[in-house]
Amino acid sequence: MYALAGIALAVVLRRLQLRLQLSRAKHRSLTGHSRMARRFASLVPFYEYDESRFFQTDGAPENIAAARRAGFMQLSQLFAERFKKTAELTGEIAGGVSDLQFTSRYRVPFQFSGYVRQHFKPGTFLESSSGVNVTDLDGNRLYDLTGSYGVNVFGYDFYKECIERGAERVRGLGPVLGAYHPVTAYNVRRLLQIAGLDEVSFHMSGTEAVMQAVRLARYHTGRSHLVRFCGAYHGWWGDVQPGVGNPLAARETYTLKDMHRDSLRVLRNRRDIACVLVNPLQALHPNISAPGDSTLIDSGRSAHFDRAAYAAWLRELRAECSARGIVLIFDEVFVGFRLAPGGAQEYFGVRADMVTYGKTVAGGLPVGVLCGRAEFMRRFRDDRPADICFARGTFNAHPYVMGAMYEFLTRIETEAVRALYQGLDAAWNSRAKALNDRLTAAELPVRVANLSSIWTIYYSAPSRYNWMFQYYLRAAGLALSWVGTGRLIFSLNYTEGDFAEVADRILSAAEDMQRDGWWWSQPQLTNKSIRRRVFKEMLQARWASTSPMGSISSPRIK
Ligand SMILES: Cc1ncc(COP(=O)(O)O)c(C=O)c1O
């Protein structure tokens, strides 16, 4: 009897200990607490600033508000003239395209969004691309810093060639699915060499490749949970997106602190972990979600890349996963082929059990690729023929995708492309440093941080208006993606001359924004005080919308 009670107590204590370890391994931010983040998001009330408040949310005096208003109206006029046709066509379809409605609403913090949308219609159409430029319907030639979500590593002309030559190669077979075009044989061999792994499967998107990796890891380990690190993006499938954005809780996902020993302890002690997903892009901002301007309510955004520290972390993870039979998955959908010819595995000197690729690897066509060790890739069991791991996809290994991939994989072997990788980090680090030096010398509160050719802008003085910078950059002829200054992606064909031009434009855009008073500040204004104030506004708005005295459905804060 006593023995049984003793065993039960030991079990309860062990469970408690594991639970405590798990809690310790969560990052203290909301991003680290998916459930709480979803709950918090559901409580945030809508409110927005009216015109007078819009320019003075930080308590700026009248003359500064007037300068801001004048700058804002001037910029708005410039947009209306310069991007006229592009904006008109966008306006014609926006009501019927949910993606456009979403991105236009979330370009800036929601309190400012309505007023900004009234005055800025940047437009979403482009006519052509060439070199490092894109041209819109009004004939504006912009420097492309969107990088097409990371697809564009070698320049758009490179991908046009891959697609055109690839199409010529497979034209005879055309759109026949199921059987493979012969170019696929080369793709398989090359991918496995690059990944240093045994088997490959083809998918239509990075999201699907990640889904398949996790499903296989669960199948082979017989365990339920995946581990992802706080802030890391792995596509939009539910299990890898447990926080805001997914209406359901992801019950078989642990979100742990990146680069922290507490997380290693969880891996060491829990028995339900099938795999660990790593997105090496997080090395630029561990534990923080991909930065977008819609969350830029203050200047708290930070980023800093330490290659040696991240490599050391990956080595520790590797050792822990090997010791516990946990499948280590590098999700290289974003960084693969960008950091080094052998991707993040080569760049950080650590090998994974499975690697996902996507974005760039099909020469500009849609794709997801999973490479893995044979023991984890197998979808059946010799001794239990009915126990299979299912995976399909109508368009997997589509001949045109395989054709463009063939062109991509052969071209990256050429001298010209190999040369692009020479001194890559040194080149981009020195470009970032030179730009930061100029920004510092000009006393502008803008800085950049980079992981090779992937950059983010952050702000060195507290402000509520940093998100305005994306409009000044656009006016200076720089094309950003909808996350604004959070992510700038350069293609490796940027010459020194191209980069110098972009740097000049970033500087002059920042000078214009400074001149228009947006970065006015006073000693009492800190990031903390800004956050506190916004929180207070939210409470006020929430109270106003629930109070029987004043039911305001879309309150405007004055
Ligand atoms: C690291 C990573 N994994 C997965 C994905 C999802 O890829 P896709 O958008 O092709 O589904 C992305 C997309 O940005 C990514 O960056």
Structural class: alpha/beta
Give the strand tally: 16
Listed once per kind, the bound small molecules are: pyridoxal-5'-phosphate
Helix content: 40-55%
Separation of termini? 69 Å
Binned strand content: 5-15%
Q: What's the total helix number? A: 20
Q: Can you tell me the CATH superfamily of the largest domain?
A: Type I PLP-dependent aspartate aminotransferase-like (Major domain)
Residue windows where pLDDT falls under 50 for at least 5 positions = 549-553
| Whole-number tally of structural domains | 3
Rg of Cα set: 25 Å
Shape estimate? globular
Q: Could you tell me the mean pLDDT?
A: 95
Major sheet attributes: 7 strands, mixed
Indicate the CATH class of the largest domain: Alpha Beta
Helices, strands, pairings?
Blueprint: H1 2-24, H2 34-43, E1 48-49, H3 51-54, H4 62-82, H5 84-94, H6 98-105, H7 110-119, E2 128-130, E3 133-135, E4 141-144, H8 156-170, H9 183-195, E5 199-203, H10 206-221, E6 225-229, E7 253-256, H11 261-269, E8 273-278, H12 307-324, E9 327-331, H13 343-348, E10 354-358, E11 368-372, H14 374-377, H15 399-411, H16 415-421, H17 424-441, E12 446-451, E13 454-459, H18 469-475, E14 478-479, E15 488-489, H19 496-515, H20 527-546, E16 556-557
Parallel strand pairs: 1-16, 4-14, 6-7, 6-8, 8-9, 9-10
Antiparallel strand pairs: 2-3, 3-4, 5-11, 10-11, 12-13, 13-15
The chain binds pyridoxal-5'-phosphate.
